[in-house]
Design brief:
Blueprint lengths: L2 H10 L12 H24 L6 H22 L20 H19 L2 H6 L5 H20 L5 H16 L23 E8 L5 E5 L2 E7 L13 H11 L3 H6 L8 H6 L3 H19 L12 H10 L10 H21 L2 E6 L4 E6 L3
Antiparallel strand pairs: 1-2, 1-4, 2-3, 4-5
Helix pairs in contact: 1-3, 1-7, 2-3, 2-4, 3-6, 3-7, 4-6, 7-13, 8-13
Length: about 350
């Protein structure tokens, strides 16, 4: 992907609200953060050597994140990216660490100068166009040179970053959730639409029911504090609604795919269920620390990356980051409602990727 094209595509995923007092600080602080992430990756590479198996993948991802912020800022300085470079086909795939570090330090030295342009970026006024353009191109050159040491180039970095940001921000929530059991007998398929009641038992525990039949166990917070964890099954239900996936609920609903022994073992077995429990626990811990997304629907990319790493060996790995983001937001919305009302009915529609909550009387 040419960088001129990448800059235009990057703007499609720019969710910064420009024009506010601190708008320019978001990309500038973002660049500082990503430079720190690159330094951590390089430190681990130097320390761990070949045992750092994901080094190149991590490095290229962090370089792509810096690139994204740089081209966004360049746009607001009125600079169209037309960067070109010479390809040295004789350069060895791996050069010395010293050369890589020198390029990185040169890249880092440009960042304070970049930050000094804050007022120009905020006002969209490029007072020193030629100087600023040269600065941007030098940053791009350093990114290219670092990637070139590992037999890649800045266009490949741009292409991978576009796929990453596009998959995170751009998706159609009106499409149907995945159907992982479409070829299975009807009695092994998860229902696409259903209603599940959340009730409070006489011993003040929480229980879920479908058509009056208990689903799962009675739950408490298992905590010294009233943190609402007893309602965490809502996030499993969100997995069904938004992704079409939940080995935990598939077991509880007696819909395991026993007609295919391998699928039953790998996708519906204990390991898959544990993976889902880990995912839900990560989601719950994150949203608890972020006020259950009550005031913002922003979800950190780091959480999504952690989740996709967890599920990489099971069928839900085909889901894009935007699908997980939608799942988390949808789950939080219903979680806040059920925690407020304590009891209620959740209507699930996997064909529309939505859940609807209706309060019920105790």
């Amino acid at each position: 992907m040419k960088l001129s094209e990448y800059q235009l595509k990057a703007l499609e995923t720019d969710n910064i609200i420009w024009g506010e007092d601190f708008s320019a600080d978001i990309p500038l602080l973002g660049i500082v953060g990503e430079i720190g992430s690159i330094s951590t990756v390089l430190k681990k590479w130097q320390r761990d050597g070949v045992s750092y198996g994901t080094f190149e993948q991590d490095l290229f991802e962090e370089l792509g994140d810096v690139l994204w912020y740089v081209v966004i800022v360049a746009h607001h300085l009125g600079i169209d990216i037309m960067f070109e470079y010479d390809v040295d086909i004789d350069k060895p795939i791996y050069s010395s660490q010293e050369n890589v570090f020198k390029e990185f330090y040169s890249l880092s030295k440009n960042i304070p100068i970049f930050i000094s342009l804050r007022d120009e970026i905020s006002k969209g006024a490029n007072i020193s166009y030629t100087k600023n353009k040269d600065l941007v191109e030098d940053i791009l050159l350093r990114i290219h040179n670092i990637s070139d040491h590992f037999n890649s180039d800045i266009e490949s970095i741009a292409d991978a970053n576009y796929r990453k940001t596009h998959d995170f921000w751009i998706g159609d929530t009106l499409t149907k959730a995945h159907c992982f059991d479409g070829l299975c007998p009807n009695y092994e398929r998860m229902p696409r639409t259903f209603e599940i009641d959340v009730i409070e038992t006489i011993d003040t525990k929480i229980l879920m029911q479908i058509n009056g039949v208990n689903v799962g166990d009675k739950l408490t917070d298992n905590s010294y504090n009233d943190d609402g964890y007893r309602f965490h099954d809502v996030f499993h239900v969100a997995n069904i609604a938004a992704l079409g996936w939940s080995p935990v609920f598939r077991r509880m609903l007696h819909r395991k795919r026993k007609s295919d022994a391998l699928v039953d073992e790998v996708q519906d077995g204990a390991r898959a269920a544990i993976i889902e429990e880990l995912v839900v626990n990560q989601i719950y811990n994150y949203v608890r620390d972020h006020n259950y997304l009550a005031t913002s629907d922003k979800v950190d990319a780091g959480l999504i990356k952690s989740i996709t790493d967890l599920v990489r060996d099971v069928e839900v790995s085909i889901c894009k980051p935007w699908e997980w983001r939608h799942c988390i937001i949808e789950g939080c919305r219903v979680f806040r409602e059920i925690r407020k009302h304590q009891v209620g009915r959740i209507s699930v529609d996997s064909d529309k990727r939505v859940m609807k909550f209706t309060p019920l009387s105790k």
